Amino acid sequence: MVRSRISIDNLIAIVAAGGKVKTGIDVYNAKGVLLLEKDTLVSNVRTLEIIKSQGVRTLPLNPENYGGIWDKDGNYLKIDVDGVTASKEPFPKQENISQNSISKERLSRDSVSKEKLSRDRIKQSKIPAPSGEIEKRLKSIEEIKTAATDKFTLAKQQVKKTFDEIKKSGGEFDYTGVENHVSKLVSFLTISENPFSYLTKDIFTYDEFLYSHSVNVCAIGMAITNRFNMNFSSMVNKHIDASASHGDEFLHSRGNITGNITSGSYVCYLRDEIIDIATGFFLHDIGKVLIPEGVLNKKNQLTLMEFEMIKKHSYGLGVQILEKNGLKNTVLKNIVQLHHARLFDSEQHCYPESILPDEIPLSVKICKLADMYDAMTSRRCYREAFNPINVVTDIFRKYAKKDKMLQFILHAFVKSIGIYPNGSVIYLKNGQMAYVLESTGPLVLPFTDKQGNTLSATASSSIDLGDDNVANELKADSLRSIKTPLEVYELLPAWLKPQATP
Q1: Which of 62, 125, 331, 442 fits 276 for a cystine, CB–CB 3.0-4.6 Å?
Q2: Distance of alpha carbon 180 from its chain centroid, rounded?
Q3: Which residues contact 158 (CB under 8 A, 6 or more apart)?
């Protein structure tokens, strides 16, 4: 039984102060999309902000299923009937247990009071208070990375399994397994808005790029899709509301009102459509499985014949694989077939050439931007990775002001990735280099002095560049050339240097 609800703004304030919350009940938005799983321990304000952006104003708490709120010291917070923090009750006995090992045993309600049941069944270890703003933010990022690493590993294993099946069979694979996995992945990506952006790119080896790329494009594409879906649907609903208002006045004047028009009635993509789109992102490069590795990973320039072979991975081999498996889903087919097509008339080196920009579905346009961004920010066998900041800028400049719908998608792309993506590095105007902790703002952490020497862990503090009070010398220097990811990695201090992901 749900014992209480609490304002999400109150929860944001509690988590911002170092607290944690676990609902004990799955949370969905009005469209039926799972926003928060009941067993997720939330310690990151960004998660709650994303849930709030989905229209959720209060969250339920179910103590009987281990739901509750804790302050920064690990004390359980009691909530009164109005959903306001009423008192602070430390647990009678603290246990050193992790989020994933919270006890699941069922206790008899007849043997204990409801109040004791809530306290005894929600056992959580005390969490050491962060020693500073930097440590607190880094710890929050580390928690996101831990969850993202598990999901990323499982997703990459699914891609590898699928591609291995295609190689062995000549094209057949278990589509139901892929669809089931993507469905679970979509829920995670909806909650966290591309949590994989916090994971370190593999900058030292070229192995398994195709597997990682498939997962990354799905994650980036879903972040763009979710934001586009929310923004575009909201804009259309505003026009619907305005038109309905004028229509009501017209009908009232003639005494002919028959019903009300519901605000927020338009949704661009429903959940089933989003699952199809995400599956398309996940399998967009499926045709490359049937291309010889020697061609895919060639370090020298491709011959004309080899380039024609590469091009057929989409409109040729990719479509053949779908047809061989009896997959007639047009959303899936369009993404696989057209993700290298032109988005504006004069765009060069695109294929198939016969497809006009107006014929490209929105989901395909989103996939193309996600595909380009991940490919350019990843190290390839024939070149180093490009700096994410430069890539975002280049993509924006290339596609800006081409057509209005593409502009909507481009806006969602920039907002999702951020002008300064998580984990990227920028120069400040005073000459320091800074690591981007959070693209919103952005929140950055200087890690060198003005001469380029690496700072110690205690010699710097984070800076919110979105703060109007930030000194001019501490603002981003957009005119200074950014180093490559490999050069940046060498300069990062050991305490900030990210670990390679699987």
Answers
A1: 331
A2: 19
A3: 177, 178, 181
Is the pLDDT at 116 greater than 90? The verdict is no
Confidence of residue 230 (pLDDT cuts 50, 70, 90): confident
**Do residues 441 and 397 make contact, with C-beta atoms less than 8 angstroms apart?**
no
468-473 contacts: CB < 8 A, separation 24 or more?
472/429, 473/428, 473/429, 473/430
- What's the one-letter identity of residue 416? S
Per the structure, the complete domain to which residue 79 belongs is given by: 4-120
26 and 47 fall within a common domain = yes
Using 50, 70 and 90 to split pLDDT, how confident is the model at 203? very low
- Which residue, chain included where needed, has tokens 């889903």? 329
Share of the chain above pLDDT 90, in %: 32
Nearest Cα neighbor of 417 from 450, 441, 388, 455 is 388
Structure tokens at 182: 């993507």
Query: Tokens representing 497?
Result: 């240097």
Instruction: Assess whether pLDDT exceeds 70 at residue 137.
Output: no
The tokens describing 230, both together, are 């929310």
Element (H, E) at 242: helix 209-252
- pTM for the full predicted model: 0.70
Residues 92 and 237 in one domain: no
Domain stops at, among 367, 401, 417: 417
Report the domain count for the chain: 3
Mean per-residue pLDDT of the chain: 78
Q: What is the pLDDT of residues 49-59, one digit of tens each?
A: 778 877 788 88
Residues 230 and 363 in one domain: yes
Instruction: Tell whether 367 and 454 lie within a shared domain.
Output: no
Instruction: Please write down the HEC assignment for all residues of 45-113.
Output: HHHHHHHHHCCCCEEEECHHHCCEEECCCCCEEEECCCCCEEEEECCCCCCCCCHHHCCCCCCCCCCCC
One domain for residues 305 and 451 = no
The residue type found at 123 is: K
The arithmetic mean of pLDDT across residues 169-195, rounded, is: 86
For residue 304, the one-letter residue type is L
Is the residue at 364 inside a domain?
A: yes
Going by C-alpha positions, the residue among 149, 202, 158, 164 that lies closest to residue 180 is: 158
From the list 445, 447, 459, 456, the residue with the least C-alpha distance to 489 is: 447
Q: What is the pLDDT of residues 245-270, one digit of tens each?
A: 665 554 444 444 333 333 457 888 98
**pLDDT band for position 394 (50/70/90)?**
very high
